[in-house]
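Support reply, case 0932

Customer input (verbatim):
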Amino acid sequence: MLNPGTMILLIPVILFALSVHEYSHGMVAYRLGDPTAKYAGRLTLNPLSHMDPLGTLMLFLVHFGWAKPVPVDPSYFANPRRDMLWVALAGPASNMALAFLSGLVIRLMNTNPGAVMALSFGPQLATMVILSLQINLALAIFNLLPIPPLDGSKILYGLLPPEYDRMIYNLERYGPGVRMALVLFGMLTGNSILWAFIGPFVGYFSAIFAGV
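Our regenerated output:
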């Protein structure tokens, strides 16, 4: 369980990570010809525009969560199947980019940790950067899981040939329930199936990006 001080530092990290994730979806869709997100006021980094109450609560409770999906209308795309893949990939890619930048900052801080800790806000800054690395990696990898309505299911749809469309549609019926069941199982038992899969990837990329 996180202490209150760390929880306070976690709030802006999570809100920024979610906002960048959803903004990236909307911006790529807009660049590909779909103005739906723009008209809905979602081409913004304002976290209030992207917050899903349950998804945000889950992030704080079990460190897995989601934001309110950006509306996308594939009928605007020249190639809906291909372009939806790029829109879906944009969210996890943006979180990986933020994790990479956080890792670079950690490496810079490690070159002279004494100077960082000498700052009045040094310990808080170090904690926030580490949290940013971990949260963004967890968000990116979690969203790449091929469980509807996560981004991974849309990426899978774009990669598979059309004869698998019915399988994807069937997954979409049960995907949200499966996602919540996995989250609740981890909460109730203390043994997260999701983290058992995601954790090693977070550790692996943390070592690559930050050297820790």
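We compared this against your earlier run and they match. Two observations from our side: Residues 34 and 75 are 8 Å apart (CA to CA). The two ends are 22 Å apart (CA to CA). Please reopen the case if you see a mismatch on your end.
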